[in-house]
Amino acid sequence: MTALVSWCFRRAGVVIVLWLVALGGLGAAALHAGPAFRDTVDLPAADSTAAANLLGATGAGERVVVRSPDGPVDSGPGRARLDALAARLAALPHVTAVDPPPGQLSADRRTAVLTVRFDAPAADLGQETADALAAAVRAADGLTAGVSGELAAMTAAAPDLGNAGIGLLAAAVVLLVAFGSLACVLLPVLTAAVSVGCALAAVTLLSHVMTVPKISTEIAALLGLGVGVDYALFVLTRYRQGRREGAPPAAALAVAAATSGRSVVFAGVTVCVSLAGMFTVGMPFLDGIAVAAAVSVLLTAFAALTLLPALLRLLARRMRVRPDGGDGRWARLARSVTARPGPYTLAALLVVAVLALPMTGLRLGVPDAALDPPGSVTRTAAELLEEGFGPGADAPLLVVGTGGGEAVGDLREALLASADVGPPATLPGDVWLLTVIPRTGPSDPATGELLASTRVMARVIGSPDAHVGGVVAARADFSAAITDRLPLFLAAVVGISVLLLAWVFRSVLIPLTAALMNLLTAAATTGAVVFAFGAPIEPYLPVFLFAGLFGLSMDYEVFLIARIQEAWRRHGDTRAAIVDGVAATGRTITAAALIMALVFVSFAFVDARVVREAGVGLTVAVLLDAVVVRCVLVPAVMARLGAANWWFPGRKAVAAGELAGSVR
């Protein structure tokens, strides 16, 4: 580690050129290849998938919804506009049929629905066809128009990373105030920006060889910028400490590499291990998010160990190093916490409990299109369908099966008690179809209850091989598939992280208490998201949040405990070591958390709801973890445990003055 960092410091020009070549090359390749993001979820064992298979391998069917603002849509000027739109839709590539206008008509005759059929499934048609469909719908002169379906869902706006720039600017201001040097502002920000730029280009290229959802780019940017500034700041802080103690630049950097540099490696690996836990869910959709985020974290960690030393060589002479003003406030806090660990523990747990309380209302599910960005064709369609046909018009359940005979009529009569049901339709291959329209919206819990009861009645009354499909059913199956695998996911992430910490610190209780505190932080974070956004919450968001915050929490755990362990190895006094460790890292940890929170919170204002949720969740997570958990709860619990913190099978007693060999 020291050799790599020292070489990068000596060969600063070469390293900077290599990073710029990598950024330019990856960027050019990504622009040339273009994105190939796929938001499809493959659930081969799901009931909705079986229903889709019975319906046949037909092409995509998109519903174009239009409303005339000044009269009926089936006559006069409204009909002329509708005919013109239908002609434009029929001329689109891959379109095989368009319902003859006016199609399905609302009671007031001002809203119409045309079904547009394509020659292939939405996943095979690609982004170009989806954009062409959305453009044709937006060009409906004199009509308010939207489109609902899998292809329409692919038309979400491209990731807007402008807010990330605002977050970085705010982070730069914090760095300037905290460290009083322009170099301390430029180094972390430039390091994070270059590495995340490379990561985003790499993720775009990866989308051609694996399933990578579109949202992955924003998640990769969110995590990469946050930890990128964080990692660079910790290396820089240790370097400045060496310079303050009189060491020349090369020697100070060597010490920083041997301590903070190794911590950065371990922290980055821990974040990636936590993200890798998403593979236990067994969904390519989540695998793509995990890989994209891990690529971003690894590149930012690598940049902190290579690009940062190179930039440091250029700016070292211009860096002002303030005299050590002492971290008296943090030392006083640590002494107070270790003197009265009980009250501080209760106070910290009370804060966590208050934040976690809304978690009792957690309900997983894919929000309906009514929560899509304002002005999007999908949100317009959802609003028009509800206005013209009722809240359940955008949530049809497709009951399909074979055989059945007269039982299909009996099933329809049974379902009419709780929903609107169309007449039975006969499809090729002795397949029958009932279209069930709920009387509640797609995200309403009552619609979920209707889905469950419909599935039971379909098999009991209809036929044993009956299945229920449709968008609402597919979303429910997606949520159920993730929920079923959550215990395995949680066990994998927590178990591997505990083993890693036990290996690094040679302790049993430190990893176990760290895991417990991270679980508390996860509960508080989820509660904050539920409080801010309500239900339902995207089913994969708790998975990502838990993986991300567990890894990020381990960053601060490593930086804090490593310094405490260094002091403990010198004199063997646990309480004094806690005071030394908090005094040495308190300001840096809280400054780093504030910087990371500023980057994360900048994503809370983008159009994509799930990105807003992730931004708010991770903001709460890092602030709670740095301020309440690491600076109060960890010291209080460690003070209560005393010498038991360091128990490990086979560990020898510590002698005062023992050489500190910490990763920090």
Automatic annotation (TrEMBL):
Keyword Transmembrane helix found: yes
Membrane topology of the entry: Multi-pass membrane protein
InterPro entries: MMPL_dom (IPR004869), Mycobact_MmpL (IPR050545), SSD (IPR000731)
Pfam family of the protein (one): MMPL
Gene Ontology terms: cellular component: plasma membrane
Domain of life: Bacteria
Similarity annotation: Belongs to the resistance-nodulation-cell division (RND) (TC 2.A.6) family. MmpL subfamily.
Annotated protein name in UniProt: Putative drug exporter of the RND superfamily
Organism whose genome encodes this protein: Amycolatopsis tolypomycina
